[in-house]
């Protein structure tokens, strides 16, 4: 994990491995900031969707029980939204380095769309 101090806040960049381990142990809330169609086509099972255009850092829950980790397709949008969280007064926030692309490249499981049925299917599960 890489940590950057911004004022009094800690901005963290987590690897896919760190996210996968913490998510499997129910230690984090994983928030996908991609678009609705991107999420519908393929997403990390159990990740919540909060698309970037609708993202309001002031509405995020506290992190007393679980940490918040943001992710997008490549890490660019999630980093932008994590920095917006810090500007909104959140003192500790994280995002996943490389985004969903890195997750897939690492062979982590996700929900995809079956090309034969058009329905959801588990990939790499």
UniProtKB/TrEMBL annotation:
The keyword Aminoacyl-tRNA synthetase appears for this protein: no
Any one Gene Ontology molecular-function term assigned to this protein's record: thiosulfate-cyanide sulfurtransferase activity
Domain Rhodanese: 24-112
Highest taxon of source: Bacteria
SUPFAM superfamilies, per database record: Rhodanese/Cell cycle control phosphatase
UniProt keyword annotations, A-Z: Transferase
Protein known as: Sulfurtransferase
